[in-house]
């Protein structure tokens, strides 16, 4: 029987020398292999383990529950957040009320890129929105994640290097393996109907689409935030407020001469 992967996370109740060795020895006696182990937050450890059958996991859980030095937090088939937590030693912050919203700060760009790359590798339609203030690293993170996922990225609208507003694609660009990137501000404030016809075509392609500033994107379109599968928020610091006041106060912000100067 092929071995299955599990995720074990426990919280240390009594920190004493040799605790990790005891856990490792127990796993060895049960013939459960350790794939990866790392500290998760301050007093937690996460492990990816391999077991031949569910009985091994049931026995492991039963024994661990008798130990007063640790408390089991999770023992389950690993989710994407579990794998990334073990890989990076920290959990991705998730909105308590809106489960599809994930929060990052600038010093977690490595974790963000890894997270998006795993999403980009998944097949089929996926609509991802990313919020953040100017120059926080949104576009660069998307491109870096595309490289990690071995995806070709296409800017449908953007301000990364200069104003980009595309009205058509060439034949080989209509490919479900491509990643399509839109800037919600550019598309809603500067584009024409031909551009929106292209956006609608792209939305029908079973591929991943990433929209920067999804709140602006949905304001004047037939799309809503409910259409998004994931919303990512990127801040310079945890308490930073993401606001579009700078856009609302200056209608001339996006003059043709200014487009290259702002990473919105």
Backbone shape: elongated
Mean pLDDT: 89
Distance N terminus to C terminus? 51 Å
Largest sheet: 7 strands, mixed
Tally of contiguous helical segments: 9
Unreliable parts = 250-264
Order of helices and strands: EHEEHEHEEHEHEEEEHHEHEH
Q: Quaternary arrangement of the chains shown?
A: single chain
**Spatial order of the strands in the main sheet?**
5-6-13-7-12-11-8
Estimated structural class: alpha/beta
Radius of gyration (CA) equals: 22 Å
Total number of beta strands: 13
Main attributes?
alpha/beta, 26% strand, 264 residues
Q: Could you characterize the architecture of this molecule?
A:
The chain is α/β, with parallel strands linked by helices and 264 residues long. 32% of the residues lie in helices and 26% in strands. It has a seven-stranded mixed β-sheet. It has a four-stranded antiparallel β-sheet with strand order 2-3-1-4, with helices on both faces. A hairpin with a 5-residue loop joins strand 9 (157-158) and strand 10 (164-165).
């Amino acid at each position: 029987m092929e071995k299955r992967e599990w995720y074990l996370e426990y919280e240390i109740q009594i920190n004493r020398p040799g605790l990790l060795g005891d856990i490792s020895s127990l796993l060895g006696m049960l013939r459960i292999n350790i794939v990866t182990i790392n500290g998760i937050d301050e007093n937690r450890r996460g492990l990816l383990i391999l077991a031949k059958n569910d009985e091994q996991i049931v026995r492991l859980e039963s024994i661990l529950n008798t130990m007063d030095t640790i408390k089991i937090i999770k023992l389950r088939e690993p989710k994407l957040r579990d794998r990334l937590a073990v890989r990076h030693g920290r959990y991705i912050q998730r909105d308590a009320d809106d489960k599809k919203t994930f929060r990052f700060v600038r010093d977690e760009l490595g974790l963000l890129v890894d997270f998006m790359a795993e999403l980009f590798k998944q097949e089929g339609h996926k609509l991802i929105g990313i919020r953040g203030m100017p120059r926080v690293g949104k576009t660069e993170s998307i491109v870096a994640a595309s490289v990690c996922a071995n995806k070709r990225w296409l800017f449908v609208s953007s301000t990364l290097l200069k104003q980009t507003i595309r009205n058509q694609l060439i034949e080989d660009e209509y490919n479900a393996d491509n990643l399509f990137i839109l800037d919600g501000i550019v598309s809603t404030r500067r584009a024409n109907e031909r551009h929106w016809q292209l956006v609608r075509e792209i939305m029908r392609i079973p591929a991943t689409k990433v929209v920067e500033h999804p709140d602006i994107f949905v304001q004047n379109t037939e799309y809503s935030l409910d259409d998004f599968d994931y919303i990512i928020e990127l801040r310079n610091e945890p308490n930073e407020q993401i606001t579009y006041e700078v856009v609302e106060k200056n209608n001339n912000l996006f003059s043709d001469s200014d487009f290259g100067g702002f990473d919105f």
